[in-house]
Specification:
GO molecular function: ligand-gated monoatomic ion channel activity
GO cellular component, one term: membrane
CATH superfamily of the largest domain: Periplasmic binding protein-like II
Oligomer: single chain
Distance between the termini: 21 Å
InterPro entries: Iontro_rcpt_C, Solute-binding_3/MltF_N
Radius of gyration: 19 Å
Pfam families: SBP_bac_3
Number of domains: 2
Number of strands: 14
Strand content: 15-25%
Largest sheet: 7 strands, mixed
Mean pLDDT: 86
Protein name: Amino acid ABC transporter substrate-binding protein, PAAT family
Order of helices and strands: EHEHEHEHEEEHEHEHEHEEEHHE
Amino acid sequence: MRRRPLPLVLAAATTLALAACAPQEESTDAASGSGGSAATGACTPDELDTLEPGTLTVATDQPAYEPWVVDDTPENGEGFESAVAYAVAEQLGYAEDDVTWTRVPFTAAIQPGPRPFDFDINQFSITEERRQAVDFSSPYYTVSQAVITTAGSAADGATSLDDLRGLRLGAQVATTSLDVLTEVIAPETEPVVFNTNDDAKLALQNGQVDAIVVDLPTAFYITSAELDNGVIVGQLEDSGEGGDQFGLLLAKDSPLTDCVSQAVDALREDGTLADLEQQWLSDVADAPVLS
């Protein structure tokens, strides 16, 4: 999700303690340079330099959408990203009561500067451009992008990218969805850019755009639960080099980056991430591929 100059903006605004923090190969590839991250020392609540001693402060956006967070209440541990956050916390040795949540807008979290959280979980794609301003953990999920519309629209029935290029298409600002729309679909007219997916969804429902681009799990949720006569046109085979990988976002050179990455890696290796994906994202069935 690389940030770019935008032509048009509509609408208003996972109990195991890790013994060491030496980064593993996968974490090194996915996380930011982490020059200021701890390379030695125990990854335990007593040793981790968190915002508040003994507490892990986790951020997400507001509202936070299903299937990532249920009922816009990350504290309940329900939804894929809420469950992943608590699994990471447990892996680091934090009890549930030692986790506190705060809300930070998506675009604010990826900007340089101080941050009121230890890590943020909000479908942040790991990109080289963002690594200039923030750190990332190793990836906890890989996702495709998808095109959605409403029944009877000009995009309904499209089977290829060529079928979409002459239509009015939109996506949320500063997201991989917008990058894929611009670079992969490459519409003939400038894409319509929205502040939030809620704004994009409303414009779609009102016929202001023919289709919008969102990640695939979000596409299934929106079309089944939020849109009248919602339709998934298809998923995009090319969603960026290596796929679109989500990572936990931390401050640039955070002393927590290596420990958080090792926690994510441990959850991947012991099958926890796969189990959570099955639990919360199992409705994400195969969608037709647009090429």
